[in-house]
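Service request form, structural biology core

Requester: graduate student, group of Dr. S.
Request type: structure prediction, single chain
Budget code: on file
Notes: please return the result as structure tokens.

Sequence provided:
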Amino acid sequence: MAIGERIRFMRNLRGMTQRWLGQAVGFPAKTADVRMAQYESGTRTPKEDLVNALANVLEVSPLALKIPDIDSDLGFIHTLFAIEDIHGARAERQGDEVHIIFDGNKRNMDASVYEMLSAWAEQSEKFRNGEISKEQYDHWRYTFPAEDTTQIWGKVPSQEFSDAFVKSLKKYIND
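Core staff response, request fulfilled:
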């Protein structure tokens, strides 16, 4: 989820309008909603000081708004929080383990995401059970979805092919 989408999500979560949030961070009333719409749509990217001001007004960490750096511990956990917001995942503790649960019955869980996670779980289980090697497991992960046999994947034609096809079809229809 991009920063603009995170801003919109948090703003809506707090029940704020674009105008109200824009004014709260210091934009003039006349342009506050337009400026916030630009940030939320991604046509403008907020600088660090604005991100901090927005986070302060929204009462969240600036990390909750930024695109997380998954290589850092805080970025990783905020990535998981975003996944919770988008896909309905949740963390559960079971003994000494912590599990991330994706409930396929959640309304905000896209069926294709659930199927991909299920395919991953299947391959992971095969690796843990010794049915496939680490190399086979890594190959499956790093070439996904090309090597996935649990789902039917179709290739999308290139834009050039699509344009040429439409052009030929239009010519055929007009002749």
